[in-house]
From TrEMBL:
InterPro entries: Bact_solute-bd_prot1 (IPR050490), SBP (IPR006059). Gene3D superfamilies: Periplasmic binding protein-like II (3.40.190.10). Belongs to the bacterial solute-binding protein 1 family. It comes from Ornithinimicrobium cerasi. The keyword Transport applies. This is Alpha-glucoside transport system substrate-binding protein. The keyword Transport applies. Keywords: Transport. It comes from the Bacteria.
């Protein structure tokens, strides 16, 4: 789930996603292939001094984004004109289909990129970026999310890290519990120790999000799918190359249920569903915490009490949600981000894309907080505190990065039946029953695309 819950493209995006060819490592593509007719000898048109950009973020994020461009605009002489649209996924489709595409789109989910690539609307990044150099500095696996028929059509300009476990630093360290669990089994031991030592419920979990209640639960299932079964099975699942009710998916549901028991979570099942996700950890910051652990993305810092936000390094600690001891042999990271894609192939757009997708972009945004670079070579001194540096390092050190799966699935699943199934499951429904229901409602168009595009 993207951190602002931007919604998805229509199910037709899965036609593109189904044709996606996922590989274990990124290779320099055949520039004669792919959609759009862009060959190695195609030269960019002359720019007009202006680059138009459409994205989903506004407010303070837009201000930080624009601040990160000021020096580059002055040096390059190119004027970047950014427009924010919270209904980005709908607006970009309308504008592209009407011949009014921006020069660059900042996609909060990869599905839209793949759909546009299938239509030949996006310039492949190998046309104007040093492909291998870019891949060498990015978090492992990031570029795979925008791969269509062997070519990559977008590159990240922002990263979200979701596999973060938060705790109230002073109280947790006073308890003496491990801050570096090496496996899910060790995390279970910590859970038991907290309960035994304090009498409190160890976990702070809240899902309530109005009509979107349930999205937090989808993140939990995705975390367990990655850890129990690894990135290849995860990819097969989100692109529907295996059915949603596959036994391995059921196992992920059941693994979450073993952690999120009434004894382990503040308020039990009722509390999970009725506690706003933004308030889940608030009870952990009391002098005598009612709960201690929360798994949530890096954007959680924006929901902490003001006094906590003012001094994150002293108030909170974090560790990565650990791997399964008998599952995937490595540390996966679940996350997201904004993918920059070029609709126009001119000299100004090329120069802007080179900067936007480089490790030189984002210093001012990082300093403002709430933004992470997808580059391992980004100057981490730009981050405002150690917490942000640690979260970036989690992704850099991970063995594989994977996008939030519900943001890739067709809308009918990812932001509808999957959400509703999580609420039903939290209310006591059987894992097999809820996964059967999702599978039964998977749109036919997605099924057909997955079957024809599996290609492996």
């Amino acid at each position: 789930m993207a951190n602002s819950r931007w919604r998805r493209v229509t199910a037709s995006a899965i036609v593109a996603a189904g044709a996606l060819t996922l590989t274990g490592c990124l290779q320099n593509p055949d520039q004669s292939g792919g959609a759009g007719g862009f060959g190695a000898d195609t030269e960019p048109a002359e720019g007009d001094g202006v680059v138009t950009v459409l994205g989903a973020f506004g407010g303070q994020e837009m201000e930080a984004f624009e601040a990160s461009l000021t020096a580059w605009e002055e040096e390059s002489g190119i004027d970047v004109q950014y427009v924010s649209d919270q209904d980005f996924t709908t607006t970009i489709l309308l504008r592209v289909n009407s011949g009014d595409a921006p020069d660059v789109g900042l996609f909060p989910q990869p599905g839209g990129v793949l759909q546009m690539a299938a239509q030949g609307q996006i310039v492949p990044i190998d046309q104007f970026l040093d492909y291998e150099s870019l891949d060498s500095t990015l978090v492992n696996g990031f570029l795979d999310s925008a791969r269509y028929q062997g070519r990559v059509y977008a590159a990240p300009m922002r990263m979200a890290v979701k596999s973060v476990v938060w705790y109230p630093k002073a109280a947790y360290e006073e308890g003496g519990w491990s801050t570096e669990p090496a496996s899910l089994a060790e995390l279970d031991e910590i859970t038991e120790q907290i309960a035994a030592d304090t009498g409190a419920t160890p976990w702070c979990i809240g899902w309530e999000s109005a009509q979107a209640t349930g999205w937090v639960g989808t993140d939990w299932i995705e975390e367990y799918m990655l850890r129990l079964h690894g990135p290849d099975v995860y990819d097969d699942w989100i692109y529907h190359r295996i059915p949603f009710n596959d036994e391995r998916v059921v196992q992920a549901f059941e693994a979450y249920a073993e952690l999120a028991t009434d004894d382990n979570v503040l308020g039990g099942s009722t509390g999970i569903l009725n506690t706003p996700f933004a308030e889940a950890m608030t009870p952990a910051f009391q002098d005598d915490p009612d709960c201690y652990l929360m798994r949530q993305g890096n954007f959680a810092t924006g929901f902490f009490p003001a006094e906590v936000q003012e001094n994150l390094d002293e108030e909170v600690g974090i560790f990565v949600f650990p791997p399964a001891e008998d599952g995937y042999d490595g540390q996966p990271i679940l996350g997201g981000g904004d993918l920059a894609a070029a609709f126009r192939y001119d000299t100004d757009t090329v120069e802007f894309m080179k900067f936007l997708t480089s490790d030189q972009f984002g210093a001012e945004w990082a300093q403002a907080g709430g933004w992470l670079s997808p580059h391992s070579t980004f100057d981490e001194s730009n981050y405002p505190d150690d917490i942000h540096r640690q979260m970036a390092q989690m992704a850099i050190e991970a063995d594989v990065f994977r996008y939030d799966g519900s943001d890739v699935m067709p809308k009918e699943v990812g932001s509808d039946s999957f959400w509703r199934a999580m609420v039903d499951f939290q209310n006591g429904a059987d894992a097999q029953a809820v996964t059967d229901a999702i599978e039964a409602g998977w749109p036919d168009e997605g099924d057909a695309a997955a079957e024809t595009g599996s290609g492996r």
